[in-house]
Amino acid sequence: MQYADIIVDISVENLDKTYQYSIPPALCADAVIGVPVTIPFGNGNRSISGFIVGLSDVPKIAPERIKSILGIKDKGLPIEGQMIALAAFVKEQYGGTMNDALKTVIPVKKSVKQIEKRIVSSAVSKEKLQDAYIEAEKKKHKAKARLLLALMNSEEIEFEDIVNKLNISRTTINSLKESGIIQIESETKYRNPIASKTTDSYSISLNYEQQEIVSKVLKDYEEGIRKTYLIHGITGSGKTEVYMGIIDQVIQSGRQVIMLIPEIALTYQTVVRFYKRFGNRISILNSKMSAGERYDQIERAKNGDIDIMIGPRSALFTPFKDLGLIIIDEEHETSYKSEMPPKYHAREVAIKRGELSNASIILGSATPSLEAYKKAMDGEFELFHLTKRAKEAKVPMVSIVDLKEELKKKNKSIFSDLLRSLIEDRLRKKEQIMLFLNRRGYAGFVSCRSCGTAMKCPHCDISLTAHSTGVLKCHYCGYEIPTPNICPVCGSKYIAAFGTGTQKVEAMVLKEFPTARVLRMDADTTKNKLSYEEILSSFANGEADILIGTQMIVKGHDFAGVTLVGILAADLSLYANDYRAAERTFQLLAQAAGRAGRGELIGEVVIQTYQPEHYAVTTAATEDYVAFYEQEMNYRRLMKYPPAAHIMAILIQSKEEEVVILAADLLAGAVKEWLKAKVELINQDKPDEQNKFIEQGKFEFKEQDKFKEQGKIENYLENNEQDDNKPNISIIGPAPAGIAKMNDIYRRVLYLKEEQYEYLVEVKDFLEQYITVSEYFKKCNVQFDFDPMNSY
Ligand code: ADP
Ligand code: ZN
Ligand code: ZN
């Protein structure tokens, strides 16, 4: 018998209230997660509707007490059903409970009071109203008379105004309502976050490259073809105009659009650009809005009051009824990956939502993620290029400065001779300068300033991180060595951890260029609501000469006055302790370089680095993405890093150190047993029996015995030659996480590498079952992270 978990009220408070029903055999084929059903409910068995949120063949109570589903309402998923199906996908792909997944995709905030506007008007003819007024005067019902007089003078008055301005009590108003003289209508007033912004008309004619993309996508759209497109367009090539051209047609066809942009790029300028074109059919979501404001926007989308929702990651779950298109701008941004469980990636979930809602997906970036570009190369996505800057601005001149040479010249300042002289030149000419420093990854990375050697893990090819205890550690495998005093390659004593922050840079700028007007922008200066935009607009208005910033590269801002961009130490991100370091460096350099020369004047870019020959630096200097992609993919293939393979990180946390250590070992052991069993089943040609195998409890973990077995399992796997269809999972760790203890909670991490994502999903399912049945895991928290964005 098949059973379904059914939810009867989709509101955040009730997501965990599910009821189990049996599925009549005739309905089994159509009973999938998300479909609306009718069920007999309560003692009277009245028939009500609900949605299937889970399926199983295990009854939760005595089978004879389980009622049966009456029917499936219609085929085709309504929006609620689509969101439930999307939640099931999130749970399956990223781990965690269905309840957590539902809470992620159903972004309704509970207990938010709606602002209700109540309008009072006359319910009777003018004459009758007048009669009522005269009668009230006679009876000396002063308040009543006041209200009736007011209504004789104006057709409708707001309830609140009657109470507050006319000083009339609610009882009086209600008694007039009861006698049928007045009526009160309520009108829900949604807060519109952009209502007050300007509307000018909008007209830009697309250039040839832009028009080609718009035409192709719309041709597909009209023919009913839905797929994922990747637009690789250099900075300033006019991607946003392309999006708007396509959006225009999609909303004219009566369907809706979600556009994701990184929170950091959700600036006033960007929003106004959309607002000018689409008026108040658009809305935005962002984290600075109150819960009430966010709730209102979601309601407006549900009610069909808007057609376009713009926002960061979570805007993906806007409950539009007839979604036609999802755009993900700057698709390479790490903020599209959730850092909280379920650790989903918006790009992947968007593609699933597109499938469920029959919508197309457009990804855009000047520096696409390797994941997206590989899929485009593999033919899964359709690839477009925008190769020219839209405004015919000149591509900037880029110089690479070798900082090792500067040290030889005894220049120990953070400015190379070239950069210093160019800064002086721009200050003289009253042109603007941007100085970038990548903060990510600088902390703790150790390198030699004489020869450029960086201290790396011999096993993982990842930079080691300095710990205050005087050791360097690999955050992937736990390898550690004492922090060296001299460079192991050249013997120089200039080997040290990097630690230049933006504040220090600011101090040095002020010291070397005392007349310069300097603005600094980083997480510290932009904590409050407006300062980020204030800094940018004040710089755009020419109120400063130099802007110092971290990787907060801004979209929606063209700084026409900037003719020099300096990147102070490109390597800082190159040696970050994860495998995406080169990709991030390339992105930072290419995007930063793209900031120069947006106006009439030609721009210049200076990249300072200890590794001038590194491909991430040289390819970024020429904005040659394809060359970068090819080199980097070779590295990922060699090392089996995503997207050549997949990684599943398992983070184990507990208050007790022994618990995390043993739990991590148990999980590593369990993975090995799974692997052994899986390979055996594949050898016997029945790979699908896996699940049955687990459910029947054949995987029993006697926690002490197991380690004796382990040696055997490893030999077994080595002797059992691999072919492409078998899982070939490498287990890295367990090791203490980079932050091994956080708020008194110990953290250990285990990485699994495997070429086929599906096998990792199977391992995750298996481990989740293991964790629920084993008492041991009650004392710790286990989180899964597929293709993690940051190392733990
Ligand atoms: P991207 O999103 O690729 O960085 P934008 O769409 O922001 O590029 O375009 C960069 C600048 O070029 C903007 O100021 C935009 O108004 C302008 N622009 C884009 N397309 C055109 C066009 N076809 N004609 C004139 N200006 C354009
Ligand atoms: Zn050295
Ligand atoms: Zn290592």
UniProtKB/TrEMBL annotation:
Q: What is this protein called?
A: Replication restart protein PriA
Q: How does it assemble?
A: Component of the replication restart primosome.
Domain Helicase ATP-binding, first and last residues per copy? 220-386
Cofactor(s) this protein requires: Zn(2+)
> Which organism does this sequence originate in?
Lachnoclostridium phytofermentans (strain ATCC 700394 / DSM 18823 / ISDg)
**GO biological process: any one?**
double-strand break repair
Catalysed reaction per UniProt? ATP + H2O = ADP + phosphate + H(+); Couples ATP hydrolysis with the unwinding of duplex DNA by translocating in the 3'-5' direction
Its Enzyme Commission number(s) read 5.6.2.4
State the GO CC annotations.
primosome complex
* Cofactor, how bound (note): Binds 2 zinc ions per subunit.
Q: Which UniProt keywords apply?
A: ATP-binding, DNA replication, DNA-binding, Helicase, Hydrolase, Isomerase, Metal-binding, Nucleotide-binding, Primosome, Zinc
Cite the binding residues for Zn(2+) 2: C457, C460, C474, C477
Instruction: Output the InterPro entries linked to this UniProt entry.
Output: Helicase/UvrB_N (IPR006935), Helicase_ATP-bd (IPR014001), Helicase_C-like (IPR001650), P-loop_NTPase (IPR027417), PriA (IPR005259), PriA_3primeBD (IPR041222), PriA_3primeBD_sf (IPR042115), PriA_C (IPR041236)
PROSITE patterns in the record, alphabetically?
HELICASE_ATP_BIND_1
User: Where do the annotations place Zn(2+) 1 binding?
Assistant: C448, C451, C487, C490
Question: What family does this chain come from, according to its entry?
Answer: Belongs to the helicase family. PriA subfamily.
As for what it does, the entry says: Initiates the restart of stalled replication forks, which reloads the replicative helicase on sites other than the origin of replication. Recognizes and binds to abandoned replication forks and remodels them to uncover a helicase loading site. Promotes assembly of the primosome at these replication forks.
According to the record, the segments passing through the membrane are none
**Which GO molecular function terms does the record list?**
3'-5' DNA helicase activity; ATP binding; ATP hydrolysis activity; DNA binding; zinc ion binding
DNA-binding among keywords? yes
